[in-house]
Amino acid sequence: MTPDRDHAAEFRRYRQVLATAYAVVAAAGGALLAASVIYGLFFERTEPRLTGPRLSADNPNPEELIACNRDVARLLDDLGRHTATLMATAGASGDPGGSSPSTESIDRRWETLSRRWRMDYDEVGARCRFSELANQDLGTAYDRMASVYAELPAVRLKYQSLLVRFEDDLAGQLRRMRRALDRSLAALTERAQDSHGRGHHPGRER
């Protein structure tokens, strides 16, 4: 077999291994998403505790409508904020295996945040009565708000899928990079303290 054929065969094997690895990662992410959906749909639906009066179907209070709009906007913003926070702190330093937010797995932290978010989502829906009053002549402004509310669960799953890919592709690398920087800083700090105590003498970095 010629060298060119050897390289071609080796490249084909590499592509096959890479494709298999991506398939495994995708399957794991899909299983996680499916489990989360099933759990949320069938095992965690409780009657929400309302934080205010239910919206009236007849001549609803304008202030209550504005409050509903703000709540829907907050639910949407919370999804993006939670996702950004988890990504930003994924590589934060901490003791391996610890229970601090920086060392707890992203999926567990997301599930905790997501559980609270779903409770808040249910409360807003029950209080603002979107499933009952959408497209029931309360006006375009209300219907737009109800439409955004209805899209939120799908948006939540997309954010979750994004976090699964982030955890698989980048989080480990970020942790390794931050650990390297921490070790570098510790060595530099120790050297600076030694130099301060006995005068500066360039030395080999530890």
Key attributes of the depicted protein:
single chain, 206 residues, mainly alpha, 5 helices, 0% strand
Brief write-up:
The protein is mainly alpha-helical. Helices cover 75% and strands 0% of the residues.
Task: Give a description of the structure.
- The structure is a single chain.
- The chain is mainly alpha-helical and 206 residues long.
- It has a domain of 126 residues.
- The protein contains five helices and no strands.
- It is elongated, with a radius of gyration of 26 Å.
Order of helices and strands: HHHHH
Cα(first) to Cα(last) distance is 49 Å
- Count every beta strand, where a strand is a DSSP E run of 2 or more residues: 0
Instruction: Please state the overall shape, judged from the principal axes of the Cα atoms.
Output: elongated
Classify the secondary structure makeup into a structural class.
Answer: mainly alpha
Task: Give me the number of helical elements.
Answer: 5
**Main sheet summary:** none
Helix-strand layout with pairing:
Layout (H helix, E strand, L loop, with lengths): L2 H40 L19 H28 L16 H23 L1 H4 L6 H59 L8
Helix pairs in contact: 1-5, 2-3, 2-5, 3-5
